[in-house]
Amino acid sequence: MNIKEQKAEARDRNDLIDHLIKLIESDDKRYSFEWSCGNAMEIFDKEKEVGYVLHIDKIEYDVDGNATNL
Predict the structure, then answer these.
(1) 40 DSSP β-pair partners
(2) Full-prediction pTM beyond 0.70?
(3) What was the pLDDT predicted at 34?
């Protein structure tokens, strides 16, 4: 991947992160959010007492259009 493609991918990922930050800053008391290990975020639902992990990464496809990293 060349520098131009890397910059475009970084901008796209930053847009997603900015949106997630807005959700977090909305201060919904039901959920807590914690970043860990680079691309991973833990989302904890305080009402149901259950946690989820969200791993953020770009989906990669093979020549047939099938996702290869899901």
Answers:
(1) 36, 55
(2) no
(3) 84
